[in-house]
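Minutes, structural biology subgroup

Action item carried over from last meeting: produce the structure token record for LysR family transcriptional regulator (Rhodanobacter ginsengisoli). EB confirmed the sequence was re-checked against the source entry. Recorded below for completeness.
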Amino acid sequence: MPNDLKLQGLAAFIAAVEEGSVSAAARRLGCSKSVVSERLVDLERALGTRLLQRTTRRMSLTADGESFLPRARRILAEAKEAVAELSDRRSSLMGPLRISAPVSFGVLHLGPALYAFLAQHPGIDLSLELDDRFVDAASDGFDAVLRHGPVTDCRLVAKRLATSRRVLVASPAYLAREGRPTSLDELCRRNGILYINRETDWRFAVDGGWRVVHPRASLRVNNGMVMRDAAKAGLGLTLLPTFFVRSELESGALEQVEVGAEAEGAELFLAYPREGVVQAKLAALVDSLKRSFGEPPYWDG
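Output recorded by EB:
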């Protein structure tokens, strides 16, 4: 290996390939575009070959780049693993940790839970990105993602953090105006505030199986707090995890609606790539979050 081959150059190269551009790689690495470009140039100079073919419109790997990419990934992974092992021997957790989580849960519950984790492990440099889109932890550069629901990606390891009941709720004003439904059949004729792109979200346990209900959509949105507030405004019924509506149920701003069947619950997971090299930090994070949320979790208490 050339003496002036730097890990930062390897990280810039891998990020540029996986993100598809220098600009996107810079955002992922948290530095400027010019810094990433400089690191790429330094890496190619150290290797004595061109790794990337860059034009104004696109970027592609050269033949040497194709050959070097898996080795670069292995070198960087082994270096990170070595750092993690040294941290474990010192009984301290250090270094960067990048995670993604849904906006609403991040604001309401994950943020406060992370403060205790960071106070216990001050050497960790945590980056938390809140995003309601589906984040691919295996390719988007995250060490872990928080998921509310099943994790079916075989590339990921999923650690359960907590369970969550889901309840059907509406505002007192809506129920006074439209009446309180008492059966699943009645729900089909009501206005529902729905989670976008999830057509089978309203699932209820019936006779050992599941029945999916399709209410009339008064609003579709991909954010739980907006769904909750729309229900408070009287736009219709909505089905939400208890961690969104506990305070509103206690205050009376929302009322739980019973229809003779229990809604399908959900679980919270922390999922991370199988080939990740920050397992010690993630194990500590999982333990800390479990303690913060409780069993059963405080939002179902």
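Discussion: The chain has three domains: 7-88, 92-164+267-300, 166-264.
Next step: EB to file the record with the rest of the batch.
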